[in-house]
Amino acid sequence: MVGMDHACVPVQSGGSFAGKALPMFEAVLTLCLALAGQECRPVLLPGYEALDEAGCRAALAADPPVPAESLAGLVAAGAPECRPAEAALAFEEVAPGVLVHLGRIAEADRENLGDIANLGLVIGTRSVAVIDTGSARWMGEAIWRAVRARTDLPVSHVILTHMHPDHVFGATVLAEAGARVVGHAALARALADRQENYLESLAGLIGRGALIGTAVAPVDVVVADRAAIDLGGRVLDLRAWPPAHTGTDLTVRDRDSGILFAGDLVFDGHAPALDGSLRGWQAALEEMVEGGEGRVVPGHGGPVLPWPAGGADTRRYLGVLAADTRAAIDRGDRLSDAVPAIAAAERDRWQLFDQHNARNATVAFTELEWE
Predict the structure, then answer these.
(1) Metallo-beta-lactamase domain location, by residue (predicted)?
(2) How far apart are CA 242 and CA 117, in angstroms?
(3) For residue range 172-184, what is the model confidence (pLDDT) as tens digits?
(4) How far apart are CA 137 and CA 216, in angstroms?
């Protein structure tokens, strides 16, 4: 059996949510990889949580679950059953009703199981929004438990800040629970083009067992420019950006707290990763700075930084990347000769620099040589 307890805590209330009666049992369906013997995982079936086992069983009997399309291709080891609730993902309340999960600054591996990105919850008076969902279904399940530990309100929206796998692959279980998946207008196509490669890469990094039940959730609401989501008593402002960190970047600002969820447009500690347009990323950050002061949740690091000071390191790195790349192009350097030197002065300022900078330099060179 594959354990899923990294960066999780027992389901419990805390802070302003104390006193809530917590679900102690949940429904699961154990699924196994058909070609992997005993490699199995109990997959959460959302919506059947109860204070006791009898309540969970009664809920299953009243509304038997229909296996989701995302679970196709797996072998069920028995029927759905009720078990004691597993651990919830750890979230810190950074403002009333705004919570952040801090992912590790690391590459995905079999120890962290892909828990490497920051995730968010925003709780209104009518519903909850989840911002990013991690690398696999197990993370979406742990997010669901974290919500249920704090409120009975439905999760109405799952907002995906961009296409990278450490932000999107936990969404299916929340969609099964009734949430609408929200993303940049280019997100659905980008994921359709990349999901096979993303999942194959993740399988090698965290193991196929940890990915059981993981799939791309369909995007229900597309944002081409700006949009707003009313959770009841608080509104989230969404902004879709032209190509920057990726071609699918979306930011989320909570009007009530002023906190901006920047996705990977802002990095802290973790070396930035360029998968879109260097000039576009620089322009997006400049516009975000002009938007005024506040606080920001970066895609990695933090988890909460003052704004605009919290974006200064990312802006500096991109500036060095651009300046060094233009200098190499002006000298007539070949790409292979230029890459090792581009932004080398930044190496000691970032974790995972060597894992990302060479690709950044390659993308930057390819873009800027046509200026």
Answers:
(1) 116-300
(2) 22
(3) 999 999 999 999 9
(4) 10
- Residue with tokens 């605009």, as numbered in its chain: 308
Two tokens, residue 93? 């309340």
Amino acid at 297: V
Q: φ and ψ at 115, to 5 degrees? A: -85, 75
CA distance 158 to 181: 5
317 burial via Cβ count (<10 Å: 0-12, 13-18, 19+): buried
How far, in whole angstroms, is CA 355 from its chain's centroid?
Answer: 20
Asked if 145 contacts 87 with a C-beta cutoff of 8 angstroms, the reply is: yes
The predicted-structure confidence for 108-120, as pLDDT tens digits, reads as follows 999 999 999 999 9
Residue 21 tokens read as: 């009666």
For residue 197, the one-letter residue type is N
* Average pLDDT score over the chain: 92
Q: pLDDT at position 22, please?
A: 77
Tokens of 138: 């197990």
pLDDT at residue 37 in the model? 61
- Nearest Cα to Cα of residue 296 among 257, 263, 272, 261: 261
